[in-house]
């Protein structure tokens, strides 16, 4: 089965092998070495000051969103949520569930936010935090998070910026820095592992906010033990071993080469789809390197197309939210190269209005190999 999903994504052989390693005492020396290596590598990858600014939870990416809200926001705190799609809405809903006073900037689907406009709004009133989505999986939009961090600045009174980068890093580099305080990721996308780990990287300012907070009401998602170098309960040992192996693969490829590969895959999909008669729902300038949303002609049904493709040996994702009835999504993230993508798109081509043109549009990308 060919998998072109925005998550879960294909798992490399080395990561699969790591998953079946024998269990060991999670408080013993063997796992302790893995713990230190994984958190140290993640700190380097995400720009965290030390390994004790990293928390790895046995949870989905949504668990990471909830952990961030639970540990960094209190009921009644004012937060600005920038909503650019379904997962921006989820971040808002998580914050609201914790009693946060949420103000929401809703951006039309398929568009990125304007960092200067958001920064101007922040200057008009105080917020405890800004919640933003780096790479909106539902629309395939890459948001200018780094530009927003720069626009907000490093004033001591500036709000914490908490970033959902679950379908962004490590495929799209993003690091903590001035104005950017928390990065939330998950294991099942660019990290090339099965689902089950939520990863949080915190700036020193965010870490101090968490470890000095003595209010009650946290337990499973309490980040304080993690940020003190302790595992409060049994971790997902097999997934830690898998993540350790995946981090080695990521380090070997390098951030620049990884980003270039994902950009090339994005461009290959967009050329294929445009030539094949599908609609690109996002402009080139803000198109995600990891997932592409495509509008179908009115005579095509997304659900029927996905079923036909799965029978042919290809899994793609359906549209979400506002685009559920009119779109599909193609993931090109993680352990995917141009040959993998070409194989999947070749299975898809016969179902498009202009199949021969779609296949021809891929050829220049294959010649680059």
TrEMBL record:
Binding of substrate, residues: 329
PROSITE patterns from the UniProt entry: AA_TRANSFER_CLASS_5
BP terms from Gene Ontology: glycine biosynthetic process, by transamination of glyoxylate
Plastid found in the keyword field: no
Cofactor list: pyridoxal 5'-phosphate
Keyword Transferase: yes
Entry-annotated residues carrying N6-(pyridoxal phosphate)lysine: 189
PANTHER family hit by this protein: ALANINE--GLYOXYLATE AMINOTRANSFERASE, AMINOTRANSFERASE CLASS V
UniProt-recorded name of the protein: Alanine--glyoxylate aminotransferase family protein
Organism name: Sulfobacillus harzensis
């Amino acid at each position: 089965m060919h998998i072109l999903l925005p998550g879960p994504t294909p798992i490399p052989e080395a990561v699969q092998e790591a998953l079946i390693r024998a269990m060991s005492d999670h408080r013993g020396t063997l796992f302790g070495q893995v713990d230190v290596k994984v958190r140290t590598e993640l700190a380097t990858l995400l720009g965290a000051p030390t390994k004790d600014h990293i928390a790895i939870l046995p949870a989905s990416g949504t668990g990471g969103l909830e952990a961030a809200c639970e540990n960094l926001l209190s009921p009644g705190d004012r937060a600005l949520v920038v909503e650019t799609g379904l997962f921006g809405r989820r971040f808002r809903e998580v914050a609201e569930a914790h009693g946060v006073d949420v103000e929401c900037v809703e951006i039309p689907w398929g568009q990125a936010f304007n960092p200067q406009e958001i920064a101007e709004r922040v200057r008009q009133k105080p917020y405890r935090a800004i919640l933003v989505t780096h790479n909106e999986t539902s629309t395939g939009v890459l948001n200018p998070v780094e530009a927003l961090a720069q626009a907000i600045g490093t004033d001591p009174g500036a709000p914490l910026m908490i970033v959902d980068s679950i379908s962004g890093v490590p495929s799209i580099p993003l690091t903590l820095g001035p104005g950017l305080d928390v990065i939330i990721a998950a294991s099942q996308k660019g990290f090339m592992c099965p689902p089950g780990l939520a990863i949080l990287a915190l700036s020193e300012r965010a870490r101090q906010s968490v470890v000095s907070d003595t209010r009650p009401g946290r337990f499973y998602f309490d980040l304080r033990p993690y940020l003190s170098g302790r595992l409060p309960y049994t971790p997902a040992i097999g997934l830690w071993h898998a993540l350790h192996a995946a981090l080695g693969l990521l380090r070997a490829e390098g951030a620049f080469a990884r980003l270039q590969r994902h950009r090339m895959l994005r461009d290959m999909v967009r050329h294929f789809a445009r030539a094949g008669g599908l609609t690109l729902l996002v402009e080139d300038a803000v198109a995600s390197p990891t997932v592409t949303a495509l509008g179908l002609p009115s005579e095509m049904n997304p659900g029927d197309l996905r079923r036909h493709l799965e029978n042919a040996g290809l899994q793609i994702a359906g549209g979400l939210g506002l685009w559920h009835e009119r779109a599909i999504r193609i993931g090109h993230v993680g352990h995917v190269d141009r040959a993998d993508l070409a194989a999947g798109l070749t299975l898809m081509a016969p179902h498009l209005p202009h199949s021969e043109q779609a296949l021809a549009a891929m050829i220049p990308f294959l010649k680059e190999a």
